[in-house]
Amino acid sequence: MKTKVTFIVFSVLVAMSMLLTACAAPAAEAPAAEAPAAEAPVAAAPAAEPVTITFWHGYNADTETPFLENTIIPAFEAANPGITVEAVAVPYDQFHQKLVTAMAGGTAPDVARLDIIWVPEFANMGALADLGQTMPDFAAIQEAVFPGPLSTNFFKGSYYGLPLDTNTRVLAYNQAMFDAAGIASVPTTIDEFTAACEKIKALGEDKYCFADGGTYAWAVDPWIWSFGGDMTNADYTSSTGAFNGADTAAAYQYLKDGVDKGYIHPGILGGGVDSWGGFGQGNIAMILEGPWFPPSFKGQFPDVKYGLALMPAGKGGSVSVVGGEDIVMFQQSANKEAAAKFISFMLSLDTQMQMATVGQMPVLKASSEGENLAKLPEFFGIFLQQLETSKARTPVANWTKIEQFITDAGTGILNGTTTVQEGLDAAVVNIDPLLK
Predict the structure, then answer these.
(1) Do the domain assignments include residue 309?
(2) How far apart (Å, rounded) are the C-alpha atoms in residues 200 and 238?
(3) Can you give the pTM of this predicted structure?
(4) Which residues of 256-270 are buried (b: 16+ CB within 10 A; e: fewer)?
């Protein structure tokens, strides 16, 4: 090392000596007839070192993941030579823990598509990069996206992500089962939903009116809100009086009655249910699904006729849950510049419109304007209508822990190990401290 430093110092001194000599030479002494020196060739800028960024996501395997890997990523790589994107599909029920484990081991992805409810939690851990400070074009993208989805990325004065897609859940109904049961029109109220369930059950013991995959918030929130209940008070500081209130209790009692009567598939208890399979095969009449459902379901059951409608209205109205994903950059990323380019690409109008073809609702204002709106799938209309009254899950740092208590309370209530009120009262005792 010492020899290298000495050589560098010597080289600098020689260069300075030559420069001083050249400066000291009078310009008039240069030979008048001397041919002009040829211009030195301009050296090409050295190519940037190739980098690979990892992108973790939970796109479905039927349409979204193949489209991402075969269309979107190749387009990005073609536009950004030297940057390779390694896409990693992670099942939703494993995603959170996989991220926590990777962060602990220093192997977090460069970029990830996160459930909107996880952004405050990971930002609170210090795991996410402040995109306002990291992305040169952040301000322009911030202005271009819808403010509602954008707000899910704001935490303690900074934006730790950008909205990537948005969605909600609406009621999908199997037309053949409705016809067989003599149901003339889709239920628009809770009472009409109950009447439809009675007719569906008359088709046979193996026929179910409704199915969902568990008692987590994504599944139960539409029922709680439509019954007039809630998870917490308005400023998210307490669940007492809300989650264990009379309206929330009425929603859980309704779901329990549905399970007991055989209207609701027992898979809602957490045992697992192939709701799409049952829906397509004529064993489940209604499910709540998002905008990814039409293109994906068509690929599996092209001949099954179904319709889409708003969540049945109760005391609280027709209220569903706001979903969607945000795209974030992890602080552990060693390739933040390349990661920023990928995020910008995913938020470009062209990419957003392309992802809409596989059921991803765009988050750019321009996507719903003029000719762009006409290019969106027709079925987006019912989802946009439902979004007008839908609500987002509780945006707090401890949401993952809170949701576990919600899930456990719902499972205990529906399988009968606790009464409705006892289960909800016990839950708020654990939830309230996490809201502080």
Answers:
(1) yes
(2) 39
(3) 0.78
(4) bebbeebbbbebbbb
Tokens of 122: 């990971």
CB-based contacts of 303: which residues, under 8 Å, 6+ apart?
none
Is 128 a domain residue? Answer: yes
Query: Strand 162-168 to strand 321-329: parallel, antiparallel, or no bridges (unpaired)?
Result: antiparallel
Sign of the alpha-carbon dihedral angle for 188, 297, 347, 91: positive
CB atoms within 10 A of CB 313: 18
Dihedral pair phi/psi, residue 233, rounded to 5°? -75, 180
**Residues in the chain, overall count:** 436
Q: Which residues pair with 211 in a beta bridge?
A: 287
Same domain as 373, residue 414: no
Burial of 38 (0-12, 13-18, 19+ CB in 10 A): exposed
CA distances from 425 to 2, 217, 224, 431 (A): 72, 17, 16, 10
Residue at 362 is within a domain: yes
Q: What are the distances in angstroms from CA 306 to CA 225, 298, 326, 351?
A: 25, 10, 30, 29
Residues 265 and 401 in one domain: yes
The pLDDT assigned to 48 comes to: 65
pLDDT at 404: 96
Residue 316 lies in a domain: yes
pLDDT tens-digit readout, 101-144: 999 999 999 999 999 999 999 999 999 999 999 999 999 999 99
Question: Is residue 307 located within the same domain as residue 370?
Answer: no
210 burial level (CB within 10 Å; 0-12, 13-18, 19+)? buried
| pLDDT band, very low/low/confident/very high, at 274 (cuts 50, 70, 90) | very high
